[in-house]
Design a protein that fits this description.
heterodimer, A: 457 residues, mainly beta, 19-stranded antiparallel β-sheet, 24 strands, globular, B: 250 residues, alpha+beta, 13-stranded antiparallel β-sheet
Chain lengths: 457, 250
């Protein structure tokens, strides 16, 4: 772990230094120096139940470096240095390890080089760790399947990891063609803490059995181009004042799927340990998105047709004398996820954003897709010093025919105060209610108060 | 004899010049005046500006913003924020037919924005997104000559039917010597005056007129935004392709 962190630091410093000699030679313009910037952010969350425990405490220093040594080249990087508020101490020896007492990590979010007008005037190339954000939806993007999800903080929804690869963009006339190639597979980061249970369905045990321990192993794809690579192609054009894109992605689902479960009896009566094996299924995804306006209302829509690989589920109950059962973990029947949204600013400055989403990120298969209505309403006051978001959140509906027993609601009002340039202070609530059958309903006991402070420099 | 001949020529010269100048000036219609305004403010083939914005609240407290602005012709404009740190990198592209894009670095994405944002303030300034668009007034407004003063024209502009705007009318003061607008009053949909823009330091740079300092005041909030041109380049051959999504995040 330490070696990995050290390597990241060394790479980052080297990348920064890389631009310096060039800068020294060409330091005749403000555009040609290395520019450093970033922010400091603190994020504290307090549970409203369970003795008001802290559910999150993060101190993040985001550092950005950018250099344009040449007119046709640009370097950009972003690193997060983070300290977590909760000590990871379990015994005396842990107290001797500073990293266990005050946990921290370093995260290379992006580090890439752009080459503009490379070989041809209409060709740009980006090489390195990068975030490639596809889709027109607001944070909910079924066609955004190149970078794995970074769900570590579920409330920072829409965050993805950067991927090491290259992106070629070609601009003939009014068209834009984009080709992305990411040689190796990286899995998604799953939510920390309480939210881990939200994105996985509760395990159903055969009648009369009690769960002992649950252990799992993950089979990552082999580290070769055939098994691990991701390819994406997109074509974009403005037609009748609407921006249209068609895309195709050959990737792996970045969230794991169980394909084998083994039940092992323990010494206790009716108790079983479960071992599960998880894999990352191949997916081919055809996407379409559009953005534009009807009258003065902004609208967007995005749909992704998933063609998954068929995955069998093996349930091994042989230790219980019940044999081995085979079923389907993921059918190869195509399914579609989509989002439709609109936004509008009223004359008094109140901004409204509404989206309808069919199929959340962790949902797979035509029969497992749920419906979500997301909404936000905000207004700015006192010369933009105060932003009030009285209504924000979403409604999850698992089954329209029986909404009463298949719904969840998230309500998250907040206030942001900008005391001076570059500074912002936010305080808000996250309240969840719903049924256990839904994803959000499973975390209904984790209402929280949050407070964050950010300073940009 | 020579004196008499010279006097006659001078007289003739003056007489000949009168029918050409005065009636011609009088004959200018409101539309012709407005078209001249458009020609003057959009005269350069392209413009490359570095701008300092000073935001002044009602208590006199100031905030500074810096941005670059590129304009090609009269209908393509790209604005990028250079400071402060929390706004650095935000870029706005305005194209014909009310097509606008916004790049927000935090989201790594170019976002299409609809015309409902036109009446909202641009990054906390007193300029709206609509004010930040490149414009030819004569294409969006019907002008009416309200009065001709000693050294200026005053026009009332009402939006054409097909134009989406949040202004019910503008009243615009135009210098009669160079047709440069130096004061604009903005009226909201309720026909109430709510913003005034004053353009000062109107100078000629490379044969083109430009106001190096302007000020927009919101009369309701008493908030002002001063716009100072720090650096200006005209006709530097900015490529057409720079006014595209491709260049928004560079």
């Amino acid at each position: 772990m330490k070696i990995k962190l050290f390597s990241i630091i060394v790479v980052y410093i080297l990348l920064c230094l890389f631009s310096l000699p060039v800068n020294a030679q060409n330091d005749n313009s403000s555009d040609k120096g290395i520019k450093l910037g970033g922010y400091l952010q603190t994020d504290n969350r307090l549970c409203l139940k369970d003795d008001n425990e802290f559910s999150w405490q993060e101190y993040r220093l985001g550092l950005k470096a950018e250099a344009k040594p040449l007119e046709k080249a640009r370097f950009y990087s972003e690193v997060w240095l983070r300290s977590w508020g909760f000590p990871n101490v379990q015994n005396i020896s842990d107290l001797k390890d500073k990293n266990m007492v005050s946990t921290w990590n370093l995260d290379l979010r992006e580090a890439y080089v752009d080459f503009y007008s490379f070989l041809s005037d209409n060709l740009d190339i980006r090489i390195g760790r990068q975030r490639i954000a596809w889709g027109t939806g607001d944070k909910f993007n079924p066609t955004d399947n190149l970078n794995p999800y970074d769900l570590e903080d579920i409330w920072d929804f829409g965050r993805h990891l950067g991927s090491d690869g290259f992106k070629i963009s070609y601009y003939p006339g009014d068209f834009t063609f984009t080709v992305v190639y990411i040689p190796l597979f990286t899995p998604s980061v799953l939510p920390r803490g309480n939210w881990a249970s939200a994105l996985s369905s509760p395990m159903e045990l055969p009648h009369g059995l009690i769960l002992g321990t649950l252990a799992d192993t993950i089979d990552l794809p082999e580290k070769n181009l055939k098994e691990g690579s991701t390819i994406g192609i997109k074509i974009s054009k403005n037609i009748f004042d609407f921006d249209f894109s068609l895309s195709y992605v050959h990737a792996r689902d970045p969230l794991p799927l169980a394909n084998k479960i083994t039940f092992i009896p323990t010494e206790k009566y009716e108790e079983v340990d479960i071992k599960s094996q998880l894999i990352y299924p191949r997916m081919n995804i055809a996407g379409i998105d559009l953005a534009g306006a009807i009258g003065s209302i902004g609208i967007w829509a995005e749909a992704a047709l998933f063609f998954p690989e068929k995955i069998k589920m093996i349930t091994d109950l042989s230790s219980l004398g019940m044999g081995v059962h085979e079923s389907v973990a993921l059918d190869n029947k195509p399914y579609i996820k989509y989002v439709i949204g609109m936004d509008y600013t009223f004359k008094n400055g109140i901004y409204l954003n509404i989206q309808y989403l069919h199929g959340f990120i962790h949902e797979r298969g035509a029969t497992n897709l749920e419906d979500y209505f997301m909404f936000g309403l905000e207004c700015k006051l006192l010369d933009n010093k105060l932003k009030i978001t009285p209504i924000a959140g979403g409604i999850e509906i698992k089954e329209f025919k029986d909404i009463k027993n298949n719904y969840a609601i998230i309500y998250s009002p907040m206030i942001t105060y900008y005391p001076f340039d570059n500074a912002e202070i936010t305080i808000g609530l996250r309240l969840i209610d719903g049924k256990d059958t839904t994803s959000f309903g499973r975390v209904k006991d984790y209402d929280e108060l949050f407070f964050s402070l950010k300073y940009n420099f | 004899m020579k004196k008499i001949t010279l006097s006659i020529f001078l007289m003739l010269g003056i007489i000949m010049s009168l029918p050409q100048d005065l009636p011609a000036e009088k004959q200018l219609t409101a539309l012709q005046i407005l078209e001249k305004v458009d020609d003057v403010i959009n005269a350069p083939k392209d413009q490359d500006l570095k701008i300092k914005l000073i935001l002044v609240d009602k208590n006199g407290k100031e905030k500074i913003r810096e941005m670059s602005m590129l304009q090609k012709g009269s209908d393509k404009r790209m604005v990028k924020f250079l400071s402060p740190a929390n706004q650095k990198g935000i870029a706005f592209l305005s194209l014909p037919n009310d097509i606008m894009y916004l790049y927000l670095p935090a989201f790594k994405k170019v976002r299409r924005i609809a015309s409902h944002v036109k009446n909202t303030k641009f990054a906390g300034t007193d300029f709206t997104y609509e004010d930040m668009e490149a414009i030819r007034y004569s294409e969006k407004y019907n002008p009416e000559l309200m009065k001709k003063e000693n050294d200026s024209y005053v026009l009332q502009l009402t939006p054409k039917k097909e134009v989406k705007t949040d202004y019910s009318k503008l009243i615009i003061w135009i210098r009669s010597d160079n047709f440069y607008p130096f004061k604009i009053e903005y009226y909201n949909k309720n026909r109430i005056l709510y913003k005034i823009m004053l353009r000062e330091k109107i100078e000629k740079v490379n044969d083109y007129w430009i106001s190096k300092e302007s000020e927009m005041e919101d009369l309701k909030t008493k908030h002002k935004t001063k716009m100072c041109i720090v650096n200006v380049k005209f006709d530097s051959g900015i490529l057409e392709k720079k006014f595209s999504k491709r260049y928004l995040n560079r």
